[in-house]
Specification:
Oligomer: single chain
Structural class: alpha/beta
Strand order of the largest sheet: 1-2-3-5-4-6-7-14-15
Number of strands: 15
Strand content: 15-25%
Distance between the termini: 30 Å
Shape: globular
Largest sheet: 9 strands, mixed
Helix content: 25-40%
Number of domains: 2
CATH superfamily of the largest domain: Alpha/Beta hydrolase fold, catalytic domain
Radius of gyration: 23 Å
CATH architecture of the largest domain: 3-Layer(aba) Sandwich
Amino acid sequence: MLLGTLFTAVLSIGGMGLRRPDDRSASSTCSPSFLASAIDLPGNGSVIGVAAEIAETPGHNATISFCNVTVTYTHPGWNDTIHISVNLPQNNWNGRFQGVGGGGWATSSGISSLLSPVANGYAAGCTDGGHEPVSGTSAAWANLPDGQLNMHLFRDFAYLALNDLAVVGKQITHRYYGHGPHHSYWSGCSTGGRQGMMMAQRFPTAYDGIYAAAPAINWPVFIVAEYWSQLIMNRLDHYPPQCVLDTITAAAVEACSSRNESFISEPGRCMFDPHVLIGLKANCVGSTVPITAKDAFIAQKLWEGVRTPDGQNLWWGLNPGAPFSGLTNTSCSSGLTNCTGSPFSISEDWIARWVLQDPHIDLQTLTNETYFGLFSKAFQEYNGIIGTNKADLSAFKKNGGKIVTWHGLADQLIFPGAPLITTTKSGTVILRLRTFIGYFLPPAWSIAWAEPVPTLMTLWGLLLSG
C-alpha cells in the first residue's frame, strides 16, 4: 500500500521552508550516546538500549541519507520489550515529525514504512508495540506461559506504545536537529487509522494532524461481526465458490450503479435482492455453477448485518458491491464442489483467543446463541482498552488538531455503515466536529485503496488553513 506516500503528498500542501540540521557532524549526532541522553519515557518506561547508524534510501532526485535510530525499552513489571524506530533525514528536513501506523495485529508496518516520509523530508517513526509485526494472528504473543492473556502487551498494542512513540520520536528529533518539529502528524489505515483516532482521544496533544483512513474503531465488537457470514455458512453447511459470490456482486453493481459507472455510489439506496439470481449460472473457471437459494441467503445476510432472530441489530453489514472475498471467503480443494469456509484470520483469532479465551476451539461448532452473546462479552471486557469510540474530542480540537478520515463504501473488511464514533449512537457527532474533522465516504474504494487524489489534498489544505 502507498498510504505513506499518499499522506506525504497531502501534507505537502502549504509546506514550509526546508530546514537543515546544525553544523554538527552526522557521525557525532547519529550516535547512541548522543541521542540516548534526550530520551525521557512517559510513566515508568525504562530504556534498555539505543542503536543508531547512517543509512540511505532512494529519493525523488537523489539518494537520501538518514539517521536510523532504534530505541529498545520496557515497562518494569510488564515483561515487555518494545522497539521504536525513528528515521531522521540528514539534510532538507522539513521541520515535521510523522508517526506511521500498522495494520491488523501489527502495531507497525515495519521500518520500510518510514522510507517514503523520510524521502519527502520528514523525521518519521513507528513502534512494534512489543511484538513482531505479524498482522493476521496474535498467537505469538497473546498468552503468558501460564496460559493467561498478556494484557500488558495488549495495552501496549491498543494505546500505550503509540504515545511512547510520539514522545520519544519528538525527543530524538529535537536532539538530532537541535530543535523540535514545528508540527507533528500521524498517518495510518485500518489499524493505523484506529491508532490515529486513539491518539486524538487519549493523547490529544501528541499530534497536530491525523490521517486516519478506514479506522478500525469499535474493535471489540466489529471484529466479532466479521465472522457473521462464516457463521451463516457453517449453519447452512454450504460454502459457495468465490466465482458464485463474484457473480452476485456483479449483478448488484449492475442493478444499482448509475449510468456509465462500474460501482455503486449510493449503496444505502440499493434494494437489490440476490434471490432473483437463483438458477442463474455463474461463469467459473472451465465450467458454470448455478446460483442456489443458499447462495442468495448468504449474500443477503452479509449485506443486512448481524441480526438476532427477534430482530435486534447487533452490527452493520458490508455494502452491496463490496467483494465477498474479505469476510465470506471460501476455498475449494476439488473443483468447485468441495468447498469450505476460510474465515478472516483476525476475526477468528479475536473470537477464539481473546473473547472465548480458548485458542483451540473449533469455531464451526459455534451456535447462534453463543455467537450473539460474544458481542456484549467482548464490549464489556475490552471496549475500555481498545474500543476507540470516545465521542468527546474537544481536547484535541482545543489543541488545534485536525483530522482527515475516510471509509470506502466498498470496504470488504471494515463496515462503512457504522458511524465514525458510536458511543453516542448518533451520526450527528461528525456534523458537530466538522470544523476540524474532514470525513468522507468515497464509493468504489476498498480497504486496499491507496492513490493520491486532488479531493483529499484539497480537503486537508482547507483544514490546515482553518
